[in-house]
Design a protein that fits this description.
The chain has about 280 residues and is of the alpha/beta class. It has helices spanning about 10-15, 30-40, 50-55, 65-80, 95-110, 125-135, 150, 160-180, 190-200, 220-225, 240-260, 275-280; strands at about 20-25, 45, 85, 115, 140-145, 180-185, 205, 215-220. The chain folds into 2 domains: about 10-240, Phosphoenolpyruvate-binding domains (TIM Barrel, Alpha-Beta Barrel), CATH 3.20.20; about 245-280, no CATH class. Helix content is about 40%, strand content about 15%. Helix 5 (about 95-110) packs across helix 6. It is elongated. The termini are far apart.
């Protein structure tokens, strides 16, 4: 670990107490996890967003436990310091507390995650409590919850009215009482992000929730401009890798067609006199 302190639940709580910002990015594979961990990211989220970002689905609902286990294992092998959080996919925790605990346990035991993340408020507090009581750290997720996109009527900003904000606050406090160690707030007005951050003892991680939250999370492919598609308005793009990748591929194709790749220096040599090779040609 190079002398760096491993990120733990207590480490994150201490950061909130010191008003230090927490960094979180998504990772779905080993090399990305290695790079992000080396760069100092504190939380790696193996999000069910992999359904859309990696697997090409329209939404997150098609992602299975086997998908999550496969990608979580890869990320965990690449993370030395960061705390790895795995999303519990749709219908892996909503049916019963027993099933929720069993699936959360698989993500730690088989996937080697350090914690799991669940979407929802009071409706899942008993499942959250049961998972925590089993010794598994839980991160909550409120606001825009993609697994409930059909109920929400699309990917819309949440918490714009007094009634919605009161519901969000009550849900957040219920989750905190159930034992969550942190809470993701997605697509809520800045004032709501600030209010919940002030009211909660646990750290808040925002994505489209304003700068007052205790930390921020982004989909790595969005912030690196890797997908080449439209990104949400709250995403700050730090690179344009899609264009760089396409440019590199075009250069490879051009050199291949022109005969400049591979060059002689990039080819292997025989160990002995090649006179016998002519005999083989004959």
């Amino acid at each position: 670990m190079g002398g760096k302190e491993a990120v733990t639940v207590s480490f994150l709580a201490a950061k909130k107490a010191r008003a230090e910002k927490i960094s979180m990015l998504t990772a779905y594979d080993y090399p990305t996890a290695r790079l992000l961990d080396d760069a100092g990211v504190e939380l790696l989220l193996v999000g069910d967003s992999l359904g859309m970002v990696v697997l090409g689905y329209e939404d997150t609902l098609a992602v299975t436990m086997e998908d999550m286990l496969h990608h979580t294992r890869a990320v965990s092998r690449g993370a030395e310091r960061a705390l790895v959080v795995a999303d519990m996919p749709f219908m892996s925790y909503q049916c019963s507390r027993r099933e929720a605990v069993a699936n959360a346990g698989r993500l730690l035991k088989e996937g080697r995650a350090h914690a799991v993340k669940l979407e929802g408020g009071r409706a899942i507090r008993d499942e959250v409590r049961a998972i925590v009581e089993a010794g598994i750290p839980v991160m909550g997720h409120l606001g825009l919850t993609p697994q409930a996109v059909n109920v929400l009527g699309g990917y819309k900003v949440q918490g714009r009215s007094r009634r919605e904000v009161e519901t969000l606050l009550e849900d957040a406090l219920e989750l905190e009482r159930a034992g969550i160690f942190a809470l993701v707030l997605e697509c809520v007005p800045r004032e709501v992000g600030a209010l919940l951050t002030e009211k909660l003892a646990v750290p808040t991680i925002g994505i489209g929730a304003g700068p007052e939250t205790d930390g921020q999370v982004l989909v790595t492919q969005d912030m690196l401009g890797f997908t080449g598609g439209r990104t949400p308005s709250f995403v700050r793009q730090y690179a344009s890798l899609a264009e760089e990748i396409k440019g590199a591929v075009r250069e490879y194709i051009d050199e291949l067609r022109q005969g400049s790749f591979p060059a002689e220096a990039e080819s292997f040599a025989l160990e002995e006199d090649a006179q016998w090779l002519e005999e083989l040609r004959d």
